[in-house]
Design a protein that fits this description.
Number of strands: 24
Strand content: 15-25%
Shape: globular
Largest sheet: 8 strands, parallel
Structural class: alpha/beta
Number of helices: 21
Helix content: 25-40%
Length: 663
């Protein structure tokens, strides 16, 4: 292997991949070179290449332990690398946090798990069995003879945190779309709190949320929750004024609530959110809350705020503002209200409660990127290769993390990101979970758009998910739609991570839908999500009309897609009619078809079944059309009815689904 090829391998630059068509695609050397250059490496500098190859390969065998040592259950073995001539030496292991001090008198009888030859010397890796250590991260000192080395031992459970092995049913929502009881234009935590009671009354076990990440207060029309300012912070627009203690006896707030701006907003009934207006008004109200806190807060509340700031220093410090304390206050209020909603779920007997959603990346001009810029590549963004739903591939415009930089400071960036998103919820859905194994990088090569797969430290990122899920008692769902390598599916399954299936895409080889009993069991099964049309719009072809209306497709394309849709509807009817006695046809009412489909899927063995509130609300408009930005009002469409009205109208359907699932 030549030096450059070795560096491609050691740096995680992919060589080939299997396209969705089954075709093997091999990346050109120019493409792979460009990926390395995006990591700040001069591919024409032989000395730099040689140095990196040594550091990433040979040098690792000349250290007793790496910076991070994975101690995986149930083996609990710590691996040490030594010159084989040191086997007679004793080994000492000290973990002060656990009051653990172990000594091995010799390494001669220890199992050898690897070897490496360098300059005529054989280096070996030996495995030391340690006693059980609770899940977590522990600083350890290793001594071999007179040689000392430090490592951080990660005690890694076999699987992520688990809930009882029963069929669970939940609701999928985009929080901002809920009809706001306060009439302030955007669904908030008070609406979510009310929804927990409605879901509990129907024996639902969880509420799947959209990403609640911090967006851009100074650019409120940047509304995509999947291109956030920071994934470790919350979007203050979800704060409910009425849930804040500082709303009580607040003269300034009461006056503002009677202002023309607020009254006008409360009297509006727009189908799409005007974020510019909503954000301006809500932030004015937030300032009144903060003023009240500054003037009247008790010592107990001030101490609670200080404790919050101290606990979340690392993430709060990423904020940039003229009034940081105000922004910290908003994060505190959002944190408290999210926690209140999860507390309600648990008290009402829901098995999981809230399930958060973690976006695959952050915006290239946001706080997360700016404060962690050294961890990111240069001039590369993430996306996806061609697939059946995007033949040209996708470029999501999110900066790509450098796989070698992720290990900095014991992977603290990823650890804190996962921890932040598992707090105050019972589950975490990870958007595009393949990112913990590999990501498609988009960049330019010789002036043309190009791309390839880049591989990440899979074992370590998976270990973090396992550890953090146990610490936070949070289940994990990995969104694995698209091109997924088999080893990722296998690893996720063996780790107890739920997959995520959209029924639309669960097909047999002949394009017919899978049989009910063949639908995957260990998964979150949904009819639709935020990236596909709501069911009524899909059945009535409204989504195609909308695309034509917004000039996203022309008349001929619309006709072709309509023909394909009819074929898909016929396949769906064959699936439904095979599972019920009442025959449906193409002239059937959309909601009758939807209800039949939902009842069919309730019979599946899928552990998690999610109903989308948009479908229960009989929505026609998609909340998002992939591949569009300003062409269509993405992430703005609100529900037509209140949650109470939606649940009342669908009470019999929800009861029937519950009876099937719990029967």
């Amino acid at each position: 292997m030549d030096a450059l090829s070795q560096l491609f391998y050691l740096h995680g630059i992919g060589y080939e991949f299997t396209k969705y068509t089954g075709e093997q695609v091999v990346f050109s050397e120019d493409t792979r070179k460009q990926a390395l250059q995006c990591c700040g490496i001069d591919t024409n500098d032989a000395n730099q290449i040689a140095h990196l190859n040594y550091e990433l390969d040979a040098a690792t065998w000349q250290q007793l332990v790496p910076c991070v040592s994975l101690l995986e259950w149930p083996e609990n073995t710590l691996k040490i690398r030594i010159d084989e001539r040191q086997q007679h030496l004793c080994v000492g292991i000290k973990v002060e946090a656990l009051d653990l001090d172990l000594a091995f008198q010799t390494m001669r009888d220890l199992p050898v798990t690897g070897e490496y030859y360098l300059h005529g010397v054989r280096y070996i890796e030996v495995a030391l069995e340690l006693p059980f250590i609770p899940a977590g991260y522990y600083d350890a000192t290793i001594k071999v003879g007179e040689q000392f080395s430090n490592t951080q031992v990660w005690s890694v459970p076999e699987q992520v945190y688990q809930v009882d092995d029963i069929k669970l049913t939940g609701l999928s929502i985009q929080l901002y779309t809920l009809k706001n009881k306060a009439l302030l234009g955007v669904g908030d935590f008070s609406d979510l709190l009310s929804l927990t009671h409605l879901c509990s009354a129907q024996n639902m076990d969880y509420i799947l949320l959209n990403p609640l990440h911090l967006l851009f207060a100074d650019m409120p029309e940047r509304a995509s929750p999947y291109s956030p300012n920071s994934r470790a912070l919350l979007n203050p627009l979800y704060i409910a004024i009425d849930l804040c203690d500082d709303a009580n006896n607040n003269t300034e707030l009461n006056a503002l609530m009677q202002s023309d701006d607020v009254i006008s907003l409360m009297q509006s009934n727009d189908q799409f959110i005007n974020y510019e207006n909503v954000s301006r008004i809500k932030y004015t109200l937030f300032k009144a809350l903060y003023s009240q806190f500054e003037l009247t807060a008790s010592n107990e509340r001030r101490q609670a705020f200080t404790a919050f700031c101290n606990t979340h220093t690392s993430t709060l410090n990423t904020l940039e503002s003229d009034n940081l304390t105000f922004d910290y206050y908003l994060q505190w209020q959002a944190y408290l209200q999210l926690a209140l909603c999860q507390k309600s779920c648990i008290e009402l007997g829901m098995a999981i409660g809230l399930i958060n959603d973690l976006a695959v990346g952050c915006a290239g001009d946001g706080a997360e990127f700016k404060n962690q810029q050294s961890l990111f590549s240069q001039e590369a963004s993430v996306g996806a290769p061609p697939d059946p739903w995007a033949e040209a591939g996708q470029n999501w415009g999110l900066p790509a993390l450098n796989p070698r930089s992720l290990s900095n400071n014991h992977f603290e960036f990823y650890r804190s990101l996962i921890r932040a998103n598992m707090q105050n919820v019972g589950g975490l859905r990870i958007d595009h979970v393949m990112a913990i194994r590999r990501l498609w990088w988009c960049f330019e090569t010789n002036g043309k758009q190009d791309g390839c797969y880049v591989y990440y430290p899979f074992e370590h990122l998976l270990a973090i998910l396992k550890i953090e899920s146990h610490i936070n008692q949070s289940i994990v769902i990995g969104e694995d739609l698209g091109v997924v390598p088999p080893e990722v599916r296998d690893a996720l399954a063996s780790s107890g991570i739920f997959s995520n299936s959209l029924f639309y895409f669960e097909k047999q080889h002949d394009d017919e839908f899978l049989l009910v009993n063949d639908l995957p069991s260990r998964c979150l099964l949904m009819i639709a999500n935020h990236d596909v049309p709501p069911f009524m719009g899909w059945w009535q072809h409204d989504d195609l009309d909308i695309k034509q209306q917004y000039s996203l497709i022309n008349e001929q394309q619309c006709n072709d897609l309509t023909h394909q849709r009819v074929k898909e509807q016929e396949r769906l009817l064959r699936f439904i009619n095979a599972n019920q006695t009442k025959e449906l046809n193409l002239q059937a009412n959309a909601m009758d078809v939807y209800k039949s489909l939902a009842l069919c899927l309730a019979k599946s063995q899928s552990r998690l079944l999610a109903l989308q509130i948009d479908d229960l609300d009989e929505q026609l408009y998609s909340v998002n059309i992939p591949g569009t930005d300003t062409e269509y009002p993405n992430w703005r469409r609100v529900l037509t009815h209140t949650c109470e009205e939606i649940f009342s109208k669908n009470a019999s359907l929800l009861a029937a689904i519950d009876s099937i699932r719990k029967g």
